[in-house]
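Practice problem: predict the structure.
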Amino acid sequence: MAETISSRVGRILSGGLSALVSAVENAAPETVMAEAVAEIDRAIEDVRSELGRILGAKHLASTRLMEENARHSDLTDKISLALKEGRNDLAEAAVGQQLDIEAQLPVLESALTENEGREQELEGLIAALQAKKRQMRDELAQFREAQVEASQIQTTGSGGGAASGSGGVDGKVSRAESAFERVFEMAGNIPAGHGDTKTQGKLAELDDLARKNRIEERLAAIKAEQES
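Answer:
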């Protein structure tokens, strides 16, 4: 059975840093990191593609609903006119069309509601994946800091003679850092200390602005509850 987008995102979000830590400890993080980051990016693109399809279906349902409601209203006026002119046959035909429209309206309304719900769900999945990507960055940065601290403690405790021994740990950390930056650059993320294309930069700025606004709204709501 094919994996659904929702279950795929759930699997990605439930993953931890253990595999990455293991790869870094073995001084070969490129493959694991590249796959982890690339899978998140692929999932985001897939969700966005599905979101585009849902938005198209939502627009179609909304347009049809408005058109059918307009037809129903127009037929009401025509029925009145037909009755005034004594044309019961025309009035009956118009009423029949109205009944057909009324049979379709609940289906169109249901489709519109379903698409709106799916739209919100997909937008939530995209936000969750972007948050997971930020979390991975933060967790790996913390891991690298812990590795550096461990190597410093080892160097201090072993004296000058341990410098060459600790160099292996320092080398692993350094290689992991550079590999991590290369992986994110290859995966399409904005590299630390470097620019990006104008479009990617604007999209990243827009994401950050939207996230900042959500944070401010949440804080304002909490403050309002506390003051009430």
